[in-house]
């Protein structure tokens, strides 16, 4: 009844995955820089110090509690039985990573993958709460995701949990597939971003009463666009490592996964470039960065599965949807998401998961993906909302009014990121 | 009559090359940042958005058409017969990367290498056209290089084409050797840069009538010099991956190739530092960055072939030549090349190719290299000129006058890269 | 009597270490950017051009002289005999890296590791001398470290020297262990930083007569904090490569080493965040960056040895000690160290070396570590002082008074890093 353990890993595959995971912090560095660039100059130091703190808190929370709940594919777990089937819903690995060194190689690498994945996931809502979320709020979100929510979902998806076993138990393709974190990192992070902006509200002045939404351009386009190029390297590493770890892809499938990643980002940025040029007369640099990232996010679900032409088309679709969705969220739903994370990571991840199901050769794979998406939206989203609602009751996520007025850097750190540069007065550049 | 296929690749070599190729976008990120730093602040967002667009267009063009023409070493190709010898001049691989996953491992990695190489090549002329080339111009150059010119040269050099077979057919050493793109990326990119500045002309005010050339310093030295350090990591990866792929170097030759890369850059920057200090009284930061890059470019031809001391000397020579050539191009030939790409990539690549021939143990290798260089200058350069001349007739490469006056960011994107920073008025910092 | 050579290296381990070393320049790029951000805007170009020059000089000095003195584990060396024991104190490898390609794989990789380590070490004092050290001073320090001091220590530690043989000859555990440069890079670099600030003195205005020390905040917090994220990737690569090379760790121990690295940085930044918040009411971004780096530095001695929880605690301690030590050095000892390198690299490295000894399973390991530390402080520190004292007699390390007044960029390069940005007048932002 327990699933068969994955095949043993060759030394070559082991060192490939390890080397790639060690450079995947480039995705973290790139994303943190993008978030900072998309915010205001008077919040730049707080944004990046928050990123370091979030990485730290997410990693510590995962080490002390999360890894136990995440479990490993062949390890101990909690399961319910219903309808004659096992529903494996929570891992039960040893506390504090005990016995890590004697675990099977694949399990060790899986754990390292999850460490990097959870820090990336925790950074996503931080960008959406830019210019108003307190450092403690960022850390609280990281703790909630790192200790509990991410591990829960990661167990379902990567450690023999019920979503992974949809194939075995219900003949739904190969079970829910998420080879590089489209669900566990990006959809989860995007949902946390939605909760954060929901609880914290928009920046002051973003939606003036009776007027149009105020454009608040990112303060440094170089950070935003350069961060996209760094992120490409991180994503290439993550997608290929994930294809080996979670799809058990043979070496000969991996150059194709890398090509798909590049083509998804390429198709996406080309599409966003075209769409924003048509909509606004000129291409929009920030939205193009969003598009590029959404293409990468979609590739996290698909790079190891599809053909290059399919990868390109997946990117094109992501690049068309992203700017439209950003606009709908801002103008129709009055959501103030400076980094666009809800559209980029949330919707981009969902699109990738659906596409992976639709294009998979196995029968039932699309249904497996939809069940997984339903679990994310139906279980993980309410759980994140509940936990952050409680946090917000005791430690308000949002900064005091005065802090927003003088800027997060001065308020939370006592000094700005650019003490020697002359900055425009607040209302002079809008 | 067909060349023998390369020896089968071990799994260890495969995963090494794959891991290195996945981090080689660091060279792309570094070069894009250098280009941006060497331009003006009012073009910074356009410069980096252009870089994303160029990466995208080059990758898409190569996927849809270029890869077919590039072909693979053991794959189908078009050949003419003349003088009793085959002249294999164009690949004929399946369209749209069909069958990628079932190609031999070496061919798959070669294709991935070419994807990254072509995007790097397409970025080179973009830096030379800084502050006046339109986004569409950058994309057009990327399309021309990605779909046709790069694949043509790559086939000749890396896929059993006539240059690769100069050894087999005419006993010229091991045939033309270009282990990491000195010819296909750098000389080609440098020639495209020459064509671009030729067609687009200098920036307004660069060469005032009857006066001296105006110095237009890059707007951010941190981007320029930090980009150089990032590029080092990318180059190390590229050079070692190339030595395995295109020279079939054994593992034991690879640490030496890495040391050579580091020493070439080191020798070059030391030489440029000394030369500019002697010439101008103080070392010039931008030219030192140019020198460092030229050392890396020269190593792309030589790192896998020479001894460490030779690598150091190759760098020293590159570092002496680069600042002199930049000055000659600017003052004697009135070429306005903000990034110095013509000297850095064009001349640096040529120097590396010649040095690789002169220092190779095989007889006839220098002649093989010279034949390759002649083909680049005699065939690829006119072809690039012709194609971009046609492009320029229909979609002018150069921005309208007003765009140059207000800055590329405002003109093409509708907003600047640094909306919150106070920038000097245009004529106040010269 | 000679130590047994290390076991032969598998191809998988070889390619892992090689791939990781090729991306470890991310640590160099990150550290250089941090140093620049912690300095003044009017020294930013000089800081980064200095970094390129230091990398170059250190690499060239190591290639031409240092590698000979460093030697390799199974290679020729100079040894004295005293007390019936051999004291192997200096390598005697062939000059100019001759025969590199035919050396055993492990020796080749060790040499490449040392090339990257020595450039990193030479960058450390450069940050401490920010805003007043001349470019020639940075190069002189790099030459001294690269040609002589680093090779000496590296031979003792990594190439079968007397510190490495403390276990064999005196039953002190496994001999002095420094798996990723905590001693050879960080303690040595931190000691060189101490010597540099000692000889050069504080920045003008830092310690006004009869008043408090002047706070001189770094000019760009984004560079500082983003550099920390880049450094993480570099450190992960370095620590894992070092564990294979110098500890001969099996593949199955390596994911744990990576997790430890991440947890050390995480614990450290969390602790510094808390300490500075308690001390000053608000967390201090620069000190948090220092803490993060100190955690990474401590992990360089311990990541391959300890458990994850121990790794976390090592980071916590480093994060508590670092801000206190920075404050003591500044306020009690009047040391002006803009980058905090003495505390971060010097003390952080010492703490890591002690912790590695205390937590090692072998008896006598702590004593071996203490002997190594005594050798660093008792031999290497005086040697560095002597050599730099001589340098300072002939080529003053410190810039002329006027240079400090107008800024290093204008004085040494003739132009600033940010020519288009409006910068506050010097005394307006304190």
Q: What keywords describe this structure?
A:
430 residues; mainly alpha; 3% strand; globular
Describe this structure in words.
Three copies of one chain form a homotrimer. The first copy, chain A, is mainly alpha-helical and 430 residues long. The first copy, chain A, has a single domain, classed as Ammonium transporter AmtB like domains (Ammonium transporter fold, Orthogonal Bundle). The first copy, chain A, has 15 helices and two strands. Chain A has helices at 11-23, 25-38, 44-70, 105-128, 135-158, 166-170, 182-200, 221-247, 254-280, 285-302, 308-332, 341-359, 365-394, 401-406, 408-413, and strands spanning 77-82, 85-91. Chain A has a two-stranded antiparallel ribbon with strand order 1-2. In chain A, strand 1 and strand 2 form a beta hairpin. In chain A, helix 2 (25-38) runs parallel beside helix 4 (105-128), helix 4 runs parallel beside helix 7 and helix 10 packs across helix 11 (308-332). The longest helix of chain A has 30 residues, at 365-394. Chain A is globular. The first copy, chain A, starts with 10 loop residues before the first helix and ends in a 17-residue tail after the last helix. The model of chain A has no long low-confidence stretch (mean pLDDT 94). The interface between A and B is large, with 62 and 56 residues.
């Amino acid at each position: 009844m327990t699933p068969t353990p994955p095949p043993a890993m060759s030394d070559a595959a082991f060192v490939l995955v390890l080397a790639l995971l060690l450079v995947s912090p480039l995705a973290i560095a790139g994303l943190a820089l993008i978030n900072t660039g998309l915010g205001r100059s008077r919040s730049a130091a707080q944004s990046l110090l928050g990123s370091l703190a979030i990485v730290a808190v997410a990693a510590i929370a995962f080490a002390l509690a999360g890894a136990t709940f995440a479990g490993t594919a062949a390890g101990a777990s909690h399961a319910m039985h219903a309808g004659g089937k096992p529903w494996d819903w929570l891992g039960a690995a040893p506390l504090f990573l005990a016995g890590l060194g004697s675990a099977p190689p694949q399990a060790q690498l899986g754990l390292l993958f999850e460490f990097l994945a959870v820090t990336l996931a925790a950074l996503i809502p931080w960008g959406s709460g830019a210019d108003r979320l307190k450092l403690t709020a960022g850390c609280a979100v990281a703790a909630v995701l790192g200790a509990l929510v991410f591990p829960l979902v990661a167990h379902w998806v990567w450690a023999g949990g019920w979503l992974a076993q949809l194939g075995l138990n219900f003949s739904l393709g190969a079970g829910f597939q998420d080879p590089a974190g489209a669900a566990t990192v990006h959809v989860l992070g995007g949902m946390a971003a939605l909760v954060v902006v929901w609880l914290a509200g928009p920046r002051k002045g973003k939606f003036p009463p009776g007027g149009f939404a105020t454009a608040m351009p990112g303060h440094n386009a170089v950070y935003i666009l350069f961060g996209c190029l760094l992120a490409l390297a991180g994503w290439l590493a993550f997608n290929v490592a994930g294809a080996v770890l979670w799809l058990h892809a043979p070496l000969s499938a991996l150059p194709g996964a890398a090509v798909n990643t590049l083509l998804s980002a390429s198709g996406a940025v080309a599409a966003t470039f075209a769409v924003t040029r048509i909509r606004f007369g000129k291409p929009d640099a920030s939205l193009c960065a969003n598009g590029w990232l959404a293409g990468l996010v979609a590739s996290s679900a698909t790079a190891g599965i599809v053909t290059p032409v399919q990868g390109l088309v997946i990117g094109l679709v992501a690049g068309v949807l992203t700017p439209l969705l950003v606009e709908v969220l801002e103008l129709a739903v009055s959501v103030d998401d400076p980094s666009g994370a809800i559209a980029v990571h949330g919707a981009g991840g969902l699109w990738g998961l659906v596409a992976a199901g639709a294009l998979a050769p196995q029968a039932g794979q699309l249904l497996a993906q939809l069940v997984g998406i339903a679990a994310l939206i139906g279980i993980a989203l309410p759980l994140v909302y509940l936990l952050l609602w409680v946090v917000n009751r005791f430690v308000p996520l949002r900064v005091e009014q005065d802090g927003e007025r003088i800027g997060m850097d001065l308020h939370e750190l006592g000094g700005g990121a650019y003490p020697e540069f002359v900055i425009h007065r607040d209302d002079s550049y809008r």
